[in-house]
Fold this sequence. Notes:
The protein is α+β, with helices and mostly antiparallel strands. The chain has two helices and five strands, in the order βαβββαβ. The chain is elongated, with a radius of gyration of 15 Å.
Amino acid sequence: MARLGLIDIEAVDPGDGRVPPARLAPRRVWRSVRRILRQSALCSIATVTPRNHAHINTAFFSCSEDLELYFLSHPKSLHCRNLAKNRSMAVTVFSSDQGWASP
């Protein structure tokens, strides 16, 4: 099982120019993050191969109350072998029922 680091909510830029991160209500953001994590079962895990090629894998995950993400994978899977050599990774968790026009 791998323990993933937490993101800094203050550093997240919504990217649409509407609400600067400093004006986001932290309590509202954390509620949203927890809701998405509770309602989602899959995540995407991006790792880097020893030859510096990108690799992405979809996996089931769970999280703790402290928002630590966990996934269970076979140690010989490519993403686990990549992590054994290079701990750099990125993870996405998202609500897959969000519409294109929704904020």
